[in-house]
Amino acid sequence: MIDFFINLSPIAQAFIASLFTWAITSLGAAVVFCFKEIKKGIMDALLGFSAGVMIAASFWSLLSPAIEMAESLKLIPWLVAFVGFFGGGLLLYAGDKIYSLAEKKKKKEKKDGPNLKRCLMLIISITLHNIPEGLVIGVAFGSLAYNIPGATLLSAITLAIGIGIQNFPEGSAVSLPLRREGFSRTKSFFYGQASGIVEPISAVIGAILVMKVQTLLPFLLSFAAGAMVYVVVEELIPESQSNQKKDLMALFTLVGFSVMMILDVALG
To answer: Closest Cα to residue 61, out of 168, 164, 166, 142?
Structure first.
């Protein structure tokens, strides 16, 4: 099985890896069949760990290879890294602002009974959030076609695992509120897992772009890093730090960072 995966094209590898992250999203959504809600401490620990993994991956798996690739292509490394990194964060920032405007309109509605618009916005927000994550996976695997130092199959797989871990609470973050709004367990699960279906699609697109247009690679790697760091700072860390045991959650972030760092530096 391992040899089969290694011999696949980067596009196929990205697709399979993103199917894994989608499966984890579905697993998170499936908790609606077992619980009304998941213990907050467990969710926050997972978010903290994922934040650490993604911070480390943003540098060793994305930014560092982007800088090296820009140098080899005779581009201006710091400019490519800055434009891509800031652009990735800016895209998600714009998405957050649009969502905030929709939230303000939503609050003006009556809250008697199931709020269909609120449910729809919840699904859309998580779905849009998953698009750059899929692109990150696609870029990570697509870059393997160029044998860039630091960009390894192991680092790409670890990155996908890190994104998959933080997809678990995202799946439940959709299905559980929908259940509370009065949706059936089956419908709540369906919409929860559907929020992750964009990841395989965007992963394939990201891998194809990287492999077809080599000069885009440094920019896309930096772009993915910026999007990832924005997600970590805006969502994962604040949510994990809402726990009463903030110091313990911070340790989980350090553990996640250390695990990714060791895999990238020592084994990559």
So the answer is: 142
